[in-house]
Amino acid sequence: MTAGTGRTGAAMIGARIWAIGDGWIPPTSTGPAPEMTSHDSACMLNPNDEPAEVAMTVYFRDREPAGPYRVTIPARRVHHQRLNDLRDPEPVPCGADYSVVIRSSVPIVVQHTRLDSRQAENALMSTIAFPAG
Amino acid sequence: MTAGTGRTGAAMIGARIWAIGDGWIPPTSTGPAPEMTSHDSACMLNPNDEPAEVAMTVYFRDREPAGPYRVTIPARRVHHQRLNDLRDPEPVPCGADYSVVIRSSVPIVVQHTRLDSRQAENALMSTIAFPAG
Amino acid sequence: MTAGTGRTGAAMIGARIWAIGDGWIPPTSTGPAPEMTSHDSACMLNPNDEPAEVAMTVYFRDREPAGPYRVTIPARRVHHQRLNDLRDPEPVPCGADYSVVIRSSVPIVVQHTRLDSRQAENALMSTIAFPAG
Amino acid sequence: MTAGTGRTGAAMIGARIWAIGDGWIPPTSTGPAPEMTSHDSACMLNPNDEPAEVAMTVYFRDREPAGPYRVTIPARRVHHQRLNDLRDPEPVPCGADYSVVIRSSVPIVVQHTRLDSRQAENALMSTIAFPAG
After folding, report:
1. Partner-chain contact A120 D119, CB within 8 Å
2. Which residue in C22, C62, C131 is closest to D126 by CB distance?
């Protein structure tokens, strides 16, 4: 799934639309912040030679979506976004089911990871997000 | 994988058929319900502008499939379904191998997550489901 | 990715070739067998109306592949195969890196899951396998 | 996604470009080395009949990428590469966000796994990497 060519003519890697199905921010944490703070992350890579203008929309069970949450990922850079750190236009509530759609101006790669440290020993889960376009 | 256009002409996101290979509901739990109750979840997102009529079929090792289990996900909404909460037409047994095929009237996105709290410290696993059509 | 039609003319779900990259059977276990025994599983679903003749080949770091390991999954049935239970033509060694290619006569769906109970509290990981053909 | 045919005319399995979004090497470990040492692994399978010349590029949040890190995977062999074991041309720092793009001369399969043993009880996560070309 090479995704066209960039301004330099080089083939670009990734997809422009991604979706994360299982969003849920554990409401409590055990251990030192920030590394053991419970979190849900959208780990984004822009391996291409143009900046990625990214807009995230957050979907809920019982209300209209929130967002867009905007971030710019420079060319050839990584941006691991903890969903619980988003503030603008509004925080994502903890302990509530949500999902995310991520749209980018150039192809990127997205992986979804959760660290759950509600208990003394932390748990991890991760998956490639769904490349949707 | 944009999946055609909806009634408004907007491109739709997702797939109409999804499969989960590894279903298994841990038969015991440790900690407060419902958040620490062991569960297998099909986390579904309908990011599109039409309601999704979803039918889940559950497959087993040694008997014919159960279902369909039906749920409607409104436009632009999330539905995280714990498989152990299904009752109609019949409960999914705990501690038994199963798999799931999910069919939707409009494209959706599905992620499969298990929380296993049989022991004092919980374990998590998650994966994008398989987009099958 | 509907995979052609079966003998009944119904569209089939899945893929005929799958690969698992990260095979590793934890060499020790804590807790009651078999549910807490450390294992690596290939969780296979045959949602179609014909039996699936499955052949698994196991690849290693430093020797030629082992197999084929053969199993038949009846129509509309699940088969969750612990790799550590394979005996014919030879066991898969514990504590050694391996990978698996799974070929099936009809489309199936494969998810890879590991339960690691070397320590007192178990850890889980899971991913959809790679649909390779 | 069969990926063309090899020199013998046999269909090849896998993809030539893969991406891992969520790289992060836990900076501490609990338990005996090497099996309980915290690590991030790129688990690669070359199921084909030609050697795979692999080049890994590591991307960061705040600097230009590192690499290429080169490895050869013989025909029909597995190579599970711990990212924390890379030394040439430079180590990958622990406790820092990164991502990886893997390019191979012939198709391979890549799965990303992390073992986090910072605490007394280890946590695991795994996902198929993103097949990008």
Report:
1. yes
2. C22
Confidence band, pLDDT 50/70/90 cuts, at residue C51: very high
- 3-class secondary structure for chain D? CEEEECCCCCEEECEEEEEEEEECCCCCCCCCCCCCCCEEEEEEEECCCCCEEEEEEEEECCCCCEEEEEEEECCCEEEEEEHHHCCCCCCCCCCCCEEEEEEEEEEEEEEEEEEECCCCCCEEEEEECEECC
Q: How far apart are CA D42 and CA B71, in angstroms?
A: 38
Q: What is the pLDDT of residues B38-85, one digit of tens each?
A: 999 999 999 999 999 999 999 999 999 999 999 999 999 999 999 999
Nearest CB partner across the interface for B127, out of D121, D123, D127: D127
Q: What is the pLDDT of residue C91?
A: 97
Q: What are phi and psi of B85, to 5 degrees?
A: -95, -10
Fill in the amino acid letter for C133.
G
- Supply the DSSP string of C58-119, one letter for each residue: EEESSS--EEEEEEEE-TTEEEEEEGGG--SS-PPPTTS-EEEEEEEEEEEEEEEEEEE-SS
C126 HSE (CA, 13 A, CB side): 28
The amino acid at residue B82 is R
Distances (CA, A) of A113 to A39, B60, B112: 8, 29, 13
Torsion of CA B26, B30, B31, B34, to 10 degrees: 20
Shortest alpha-carbon distance between residue A54 and chain D (Å): 15
Cβ-Cβ contacts under 8 Å for C87 (sequence gap 6 or more)? none
Q: Which of D43, D23, D27 is closest to C24 using CA atoms?
A: D43
For chain D, which ranges sit under pLDDT 70?
A: 1-3, 5-10
